Amino acid sequence: MEAHEKGYFTEENSVEVVTGRNANAKSERLKEVMSVITLKLHEAVKQIEPTQEEWMEAILFLTRTGGMCNEWRQEFILLSDVLGVSMLVDAINNRKPSGASESTVLGPFHVADAPELPMGANICLDSKGEDMVISGRILDIEGNPIKNAVIDVWQANDEGFYDVQQKGLQPDFNLRGIFRTGGDGSYWFRAVKPKYYPIPDDGPVGQLLAQLGRHPYRPAHLHYIISADGFETLTTHIFDPDDPYIHSDAVFGVKESLLAKFRLTEDQARARQLEFSGKFWEVNHDFVLAYKRQV
Amino acid sequence: MEAHEKGYFTEENSVEVVTGRNANAKSERLKEVMSVITLKLHEAVKQIEPTQEEWMEAILFLTRTGGMCNEWRQEFILLSDVLGVSMLVDAINNRKPSGASESTVLGPFHVADAPELPMGANICLDSKGEDMVISGRILDIEGNPIKNAVIDVWQANDEGFYDVQQKGLQPDFNLRGIFRTGGDGSYWFRAVKPKYYPIPDDGPVGQLLAQLGRHPYRPAHLHYIISADGFETLTTHIFDPDDPYIHSDAVFGVKESLLAKFRLTEDQARARQLEFSGKFWEVNHDFVLAYKRQV
């Protein structure tokens, strides 16, 4: 018997010995996943050649990351975000046909039960920030309007905070709403211009970013989940292309096709019509949904 | 500008975009380590193509692993152990010259302040288990005896528990001792035959092992740390080759060269001489230390 047949571990056969133990795994998928994880983990260790002290540093980093997690804070998701893993999983699971709008990360601030509002409603409930009107159409890939599309939208305020981060300071459901398209597939609502904000950076992930010389900011954006019968649900953002962090989103959520145009308008007549008091921002962005894949 | 120059993330350029952010890392080593980790992590995700649900399962597994850690329990080290990472790091850091004894993992049960004992002492303080006498020599790679070598030895009892796991049930420092060689480099002491035991398997790592169809057992062994001036310190085990788990150590610690011979002896005269009451186990194992590397 050779050493590896006896199950004895060496630097050379490490992957085969470890994955060889999984012959009786309860699921083929788990066996496959653990094969890849073991291979890539051992490849990384062999390339890095960590000292015992560096290995212990990694153990303690993961331990601190776990210690930071609670009902309100998911530090492992943050870690996945800043390493580009969340965006990669999103990309793999949302390969769209040509012409369909691209997805991006859901993020941690979606709430399930936002109110359904009439088209044109102002989702800003506390009048703070610079007025903004957003409009566009929900289309299929042939350019036909989609009727009864449900648009779930949410955003941070002009200080970079979501309502759920400032309970008591912002009204409940501030800057959230659900809209439903009519026969022409169009939507519009009023809001305030969002601002860039940092991901929570007072934990191990924030410390890692600092060590890597990286900032924790996400460029200003609005979140959308758009769903309609017969179509793939689209979870995405639109971004302000003039944001200082547009080329360095801490969680890699920006895609070229998600850049909207934020135009500053001084049209007094339209401002009055929209019940705005002066200058306001105007955004127009269409979304194209892909047909549901046959399962 | 191409998309990747703007820092926009795609499935294809994911690694370059993420590692490209580390240009201003505070340490070249951290930058290098994170390059490898990012590359291997993205390679793994691209090969596995996890669903969003599987990704969340992984996040929650790491979160539970973190939640299991406390002053007495290090679940991330256990995870590193059962994935062969701890042994791999040990192997990388302890490449020995030909002829020197091989190392294996330290394990979590070493204590710093075990008593120094005279050669021949019985480290079993509660008379439980099958008597055993262990002897051998500490040698350099030319076969010369090493004088003043310090041998720190510890082991589980015949039920598979270390003293620190059974405070109050076992005497303090049961089955631990430190011995120092004389001019002939030889050592001997009395103990009891150790037994296989499970790694702590009541947490997420134990659940993973169960899902993988793996048992949590380590084959019976004695731990040694052997140090001497001018030599590399050797952290290792000797194993009972007849143990039922010798080919499937849950943490991959077994190496061919670490198999000792455990012989059952019925020599009544020697038993009396050793103050044993009947049959006893006899183990003879030499250790060869490597000269300290020049730094």
Automatic annotation (TrEMBL), chains A, B:
<dbReference type="GO" id="GO:0008199">
    <property type="term" value="F:ferric iron binding"/>
</dbReference>
<dbReference type="GO" id="GO:0009712">
    <property type="term" value="P:catechol-containing compound metabolic process"/>
</dbReference>
<keyword id="KW-0560">Oxidoreductase</keyword>
<keyword id="KW-0223">Dioxygenase</keyword>
<dbReference type="InterPro" id="IPR015889">
    <property type="entry name" value="Intradiol_dOase_core"/>
</dbReference>
<keyword id="KW-0479">Metal-binding</keyword>
<dbReference type="Pfam" id="PF04444">
    <property type="entry name" value="Dioxygenase_N"/>
</dbReference>
<comment type="similarity">
    <text>Belongs to the intradiol ring-cleavage dioxygenase family.</text>
</comment>
<dbReference type="InterPro" id="IPR007535">
    <property type="entry name" value="Catechol_dOase_N"/>
</dbReference>
<dbReference type="InterPro" id="IPR050770">
    <property type="entry name" value="Intradiol_RC_Dioxygenase"/>
</dbReference>
<feature type="domain" description="Intradiol ring-cleavage dioxygenases">
    <location>
        <begin position="134"/>
        <end position="162"/>
    </location>
</feature>
<dbReference type="InterPro" id="IPR000627">
    <property type="entry name" value="Intradiol_dOase_C"/>
</dbReference>
<dbReference type="GO" id="GO:0018576">
    <property type="term" value="F:catechol 1,2-dioxygenase activity"/>
</dbReference>
<dbReference type="Pfam" id="PF00775">
    <property type="entry name" value="Dioxygenase_C"/>
</dbReference>
<keyword id="KW-0408">Iron</keyword>
<protein>
    <submittedName>
        <fullName>Catechol 1,2-dioxygenase</fullName>
    </submittedName>
</protein>
<dbReference type="InterPro" id="IPR039390">
    <property type="entry name" value="1_2-HQD/HQD"/>
</dbReference>
